[in-house]
Design brief:
single chain; alpha/beta; Nucleotidyltransferase, domain 5; 2 domains; four-stranded mixed β-sheet; globular
Amino acid sequence: MLFIGLMSGTSADAIDAALVNLAGDDTEIIDYRQYPLEAGLQKSLRGINPSVSIEAVSELDGLLGRCFGQAALALLDANGTGADQVRAIGSHGQTILHLPWATPPRTLQIGDPNLIAGLTGITTIADFRRADMAVGGQGAPLAPAFHAWKFRSNRVNRVVLNIGGIANITILPCTPGEEVRGFDTGPGNTLMDTWIQQCMGRNYDEQGRWAAAGNIQQDLLKLMLSDPYFSAPPPKSTGKDDFNTAWIARCGDKIGSACRDEDIQATLLELTAASMAGAISTFSPATEEILVCGGGIHNTVLMRRLQS
């Protein structure tokens, strides 16, 4: 049975589109492609803040919905697959607000699924985060259900670490009946991405080279790691509403000492590695295997720090 999955992450630079065949316990990835978002749209998405008008957000909702629909059509065309062969499309949407600790909790994703369904003629399922919040969940992460289905072992205790804009882990005990847990560990790529965008105009730090040119500022790192989010027990989730350039600036102001831009990048990379490793050692001390996925795997410096 064929399905299409659509996703745009925290970086808001491209749409990930996957055509998959799900048959029983088997998963076949038929094709996976990235469709870059136009530079102006990227800038608009990254610029969403509380002062942006409802009209502007509504316009972006429609523009992004069309982009998602066009990505699905392009994926079908590339594989010679008809829309009538696809059972459904799952579209996460672009998160523009995620406040699980608010009263009431709230989250918002844009990328109108009605437009996706209209453009493709395929049943489209969306609004996953708000559906989870409606029954008492955090709204994120959503991947643990799939991780448990695909990667749980009856021999070893596993953790799946997903390094996206925000990093999350899924704890997969090997003992039958023991609960699967998943939560956000904190920033993945988001702080490093936003810092290099602000300082150098680049979308991301390729392979962590800029961070490697800097020196970790231990006082700043200690202050950052003291953020209450890192020690809070799961369930928990977070996003760019919590970890952003304003957060970096607040931490820097408290330290007071001047740092080179690359030193801050090196410190942000170390923060990312330390918070992920700390979450695993604290909340899943019996872990025997770690499976790592997400865009962060391409940051070789980050992966080395995580391993060490």
